[in-house]
Design a protein that fits this description.
Layout lengths: L1 H15 L2 H4 L28 H4 L4 H21 L9 H11 L14 H12 L7 H26 L14 H17 L4 H20 L5 H27 L4 E8 L5 E8 L1
Antiparallel strand pairs: 1-2
Pfam families: PAP2
Organism: Pontibacter qinzhouensis
Protein name: Phosphatase PAP2 family protein
C-alpha cells in the first residue's frame, strides 16, 4: 500500500513540475481538427499532425477508440469478480495456485515505470516526438491524476479483499498506472514506431499478469485497472485536442439581467 501511495503522489509531482507549460495552452480560433493545415504545429507540439492526430478531438473517434474498449475491459472485470463469469477470478487464482504456487517478485512495483525511461530518452535523441517535453509531462501528470481520482475511491467503495487477504483489491492500482503510461507512450510515439506501442502495452500487460501471479490481485482487478488507465489518457488527450485545436470546443459569454436588476454574465460551453 505504501508503494502504491508513493506512485499516487508521484503523479502530483509530475503534474506540477512543468507549471510553466500550463500557460502555453491557448485556444486557436476558427480551425478544427478536420481543417487544420497539414503543416500546423500548435503550441507545445513538436511536429505537424499525423492524420490520426488531426482527428483527436472527434467525438465519434473517442467513443470508438477509447470509451468502448475501456468499457469492455472494466465490464469484463466486473463480470468476473470473485466467482462470477464463465472464467472467474477464482478460476484464475486456482490455476495460479496449481502451477505457480511459490511465484514471488517485486518487479511489478517497478517494471511499469520502464517506458518513462524511453520517454525522456526519446526526447534527448529524437526530434520526432509529438509534443515538447513540458507538454508531455503535463499530459502524463493529468492522466495519472485522473486515473487516481477513479481508482482510489472505487477501491474504498468496493472494499474487496485481495487473494492474499489484504484489502482494497478492485481495481488494481499497479495495472491502472501501467496502462496509463503505456497508453501515453502510444499517443506520443505511435507515429514514430508502432513497436514502441507494442513494447509499452507488453510491459503493462506483464505488470497485470505479475500482480495475479504474486497473489496480490484477482483477474477482475487487473482487467478493470487496464480499462481505467486507457480511458484516463484518452480523455485527457481528447479534451486537450478540443482546447488547443479550436472549433471543437465553443464558449459563449452572454450578458444577462439577474433578479433584482443586477447585471450578470452567462457562460456556455459546447462541443
Amino acid at each position: 500500500m505504501n508503494k502504491l501511495l508513493s506512485v499516487h503522489l508521484l503523479w502530483l509531482l509530475v503534474l506540477f513540475a512543468p507549471a510553466h507549460s500550463i500557460a502555453q495552452i491557448q485556444p486557436i480560433d476558427k480551425d478544427t481538427a478536420n481543417v487544420l493545415p497539414a503543416d500546423t504545429v500548435l503550441p507545445g507540439q513538436k511536429n505537424p499532425f499525423t492524420d490520426a492526430q488531426r482527428l483527436e478531438a472527434s467525438n465519434s473517434r473517442f467513443l470508438k477508440r477509447a470509451v468502448i474498449p475501456s468499457a469492455a475491459l472494466v465490464g469484463a472485470g466486473i463480470l468476473t469478480i470473485q466467482g462470477r463469469g464463465l472464467i472467474s477470478s477464482f478460476d484464475t487464482r486456482d490455476v495460479r495456485n496449481r502451477h505457480f504456487p511459490n511465484f514471488s517478485t517485486e518487479a511489478d512495483d517497478f517494471i511499469m515505470l520502464a517506458p518513462l525511461v524511453g520517454l525522456y530518452g526519446f526526447n534527448l535523441i529524437s526530434s520526432q516526438n509529438r509534443h515538447e517535453l513540458g507538454r508531455q509531462t503535463l499530459l502524463l501528470g493529468l492522466s495519472g491524476v485522473l486515473a487516481s481520482a477513479v481508482v482510489w475511491p472505487v477501491k474504498g467503495l468496493t472494499n474487496i479483499d485481495r487473494p492474499n487477504g489484504k484489502p482494497h483489491a478492485f481495481p488494481s492500482g499497479h495495472t491502472t498506472y501501467a496502462f496509463t503510461i503505456a497508453t501515453f507512450m502510444d499517443k506520443e510515439f505511435r507515429h514514430k514506431s508502432p513497436w514502441i506501442s507494442v513494447a509499452s502495452y507488453g510491459i503493462a500487460g506483464a505488470t497485470g499478469v505479475m500482480r495475479v501471479l504474486n497473489n496480490a490481485h484477482w483477474m477482475a482487478d487487473v482487467l478493470a485497472g487496464a480499462g481505467v488507465g486507457i480511458i484516463s489518457v484518452n480523455t485527457v488527450y481528447w479534451v486537450h485536442a478540443k482546447l488547443t485545436q479550436g472549433g471543437g470546443l465553443n464558449t459563449t459569454f452572454v450578458p444577462v439581467l439577474l433578479p433584482g436588476g443586477a447585471k450578470g454574465m452567462a457562460f456556455t460551453l459546447a462541443f
